[in-house]
Amino acid sequence: MTKTEQKYKVFAQAYVSNGFNATEAAKTAGYSENGAEARGSNLLRNDKVLAFIDEEMNMLAKRMRDDASKIYYELWKQVRMIDEKIDKHERAAKVLDGLDAEQVALSESITYSKSVMRRKVIKYKSIDGRKGDDARAEKKRRLAEIQELELVIENKNDVFNDNYTAMTAAKRDLLWHKDWKEFMTLRTTILQDLFDRSGYKDISMLNNRRLEAQVSKAESEAAIFENRANKITQNQTALIRINDLIDLGSGLGVEEEKDPESDGEPDDVV
Predict the structure, then answer these.
(1) CATH code, 3
(2) Is the pTM of this model over 0.90?
């Protein structure tokens, strides 16, 4: 790569990185500050420079896509974490609703079973002091009923305790209303951010800014050319007037002075 091409590349890099300011890019590339504006305008019409600019834009687009992929990954990771917390909350809420109803029923059932057992114990004790085979048989039967009922109550208590343990575990995944609201708001914000980033809109904005800069430069050049054209037109008008005065002078008999050393050729009229 020649030194000139190196300057072209530096200009292209600066042009893309500074927001498409050709004048500042020309200064960065080492061109004179006095002629930086004109130089920048000329460089934007150079095919090699434009090729370098396209190369820089493609590299920038790739970097932005890579950065966007990392950002998307992190954002989606946050969304998945929030979804997992919300899912745990919803499952915990269902578990608690079901277990809560079951605990109420178990509590009532245990209370009723204990009441029944108290009555059976009273009847069992009422047999004490009675003699005979019938009394012994009845006492044996009532004792079996009490023991069977004790097993039932014990089983119900075990279920009740297991449910309590499950409810305690579920409550750890349960979100308070304030926390749940904050998670949902954060999820909405992240999804909106992901939606705004879709399609790499930033690249489009950069391309639009580049086009706007080029259009602005073209308009400035057009204004310069228009100003020059106006000056040329004014000069042509003045020349026509001078020629008209010369013609008028000739018509009035005014002769042009001749330079003896000019071989008879007249001087230009001032």
Answers:
(1) 1.10.10.1400
(2) no
Whether 112 is covered by a domain: the verdict is yes
User: Which range marks the domain in which residue 23 is found?
Assistant: 1-73
User: Which tokens in the block code for residue 56?
Assistant: 């820089």
Residue with tokens 């920048």: 40
Closest to 46 measured CA to CA, from 18, 6, 3, 8: 8
The residue written with tokens 């047999």 in the block is: 127
Query: What are the CA-CA distances from residue 158 to residues 28, 48, 136, 144, 198 (Å)?
Result: 81, 84, 33, 21, 55
CB within 8 Å of 12: residues ≥ 6 apart: 25, 49, 52, 53, 55, 56
Which among 196, 215, 231 is the end of a domain?
Answer: 196
Query: Which of 65, 112, 91 lies closest to 174 in space, CA to CA?
Result: 91
Residues of the chain with pLDDT under 70: 196-270
In total, how many domains does the chain have? Answer: 2
In a domain, 227, yes or no: no
